[in-house]
Task: structure prediction
Amino acid sequence: MPRTFSALVGHKEACDALPSGAVLLGTSGSCPVQMFRVKKNIYAAQFHPEADANEFILRIKTYKDFGYFAPEEADGLIRAIRSTNTPVAKEILKRFVQHYKLQALKQG
Result:
């Protein structure tokens, strides 16, 4: 996996400090704790590895009037992300599923 990649983030709340005993797996300039692991198999991500630009455009349209951003900003947000490509973020999710599917098969 590359050390840097693009991902989509959409949240008002955030975990700004790493929980005790957690291992930092991802960070960014705007959010120092983007992904972490607790113990062996508890993971948290504040970015959306499952989302692509079309899914975020749907979110923007859906949440336009719910206080996440000023409604008049919706069109600008859509223009800003319309061509965003997030293949690495989706690969992280794909590998996570493959890893735990393999673990489940091994356990019977």
Observations:
- Helices lie at 53-63, 74-81, 87-107.
- DSSP finds three helices and three strands in the chain.
- The radius of gyration is 16 Å.
